[in-house]
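*** Fold description ***
***
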Amino acid sequence: NLHLEGVSKLFYSGPMFRYERPQRGRLRQFLQFGIEAIGSESCTTDAEAILLAHDALEGLGVRGQVKLYINSLGSSDDRERYNEKLAAYLEPYRHDLSADSRERLERGSVLRILDSKAAADQSICQDAPKITDALSSTSAQRFARVCEILDTAGCEYHIDSRLARGLDYYTHTIFEFVTSHSSAQNAVLAGGRYDHLPRALGARKLDYLPCFGWAAGLERLQLLREEQEEWESSAAIGPHAAVLVVRQKNEFNTMLESAALEAARALRRSGISASVQYEGEIKKQLPNAVKTGARAAVVIGEDELLAGRFAIKNLVTHGADRKARLELCPPDP
């Protein structure tokens, strides 16, 4: 019943099992950790999750060994239109495609052909239509906002129009952190928005549930660490804080969202876990923050942002609010 309780932000870790042939960095049984944000349609959630992945890899000391690639699949309607365009483009090359890609073309899983590692497939797809050109104006604006937040946060990324997901429940933002090291598999952390997963699982009463998440395999990350000359952990587990956004009825919201994400990142760099809440009125956000186990709430509104001093509420003692400055820029190396 997570979808009945507002936005739920969860993490997990544990053993997983793979059907495909094992390879170096891809074991039959492997350890995986990841995060899920359930119940939020906001594109800010997409960006927050990507930044969390960025900071997690940075904390593990491997961020410098990977590149971030992002793309948008658009809405279900956008994706369906693009599938038709891509299938029409690939059909004349049917007999030149690899056996796997011919099978995917036959059963309609054409997006997965874009992700093929076969040299012939990659050559054919080089001039294929781009899914970003098939996005509706609403989807394009949504993706542009995700990119804007990443730019504001100083997170380097590359837009890869060939980055895709073969499963129909994925929509809008998808991303991968990729390494060029030949000794490990390319993608070390990947994720995206999967709002239509309930329908794919056969849910009768729940066709749509906004979700965004990512996952990473520990073995792949370990391979990167072993190849690195030095590694120093900067990750720490400490108290939990909630960053609350007091929304305005104007364009100031985009600045507030960016400031909230940077405040959360500053807290995490200090060893304090943090979660951003930017939906709903502040009176509803505070009880939700308490439910997450937050011991403090950093409140960011227009007045606080202009003054550069954010209100800090103690959610344990409920004492008087304090005003404090947060260093929103990454510390000098």
Observations:
- The first helix runs from residue 43 to 59.
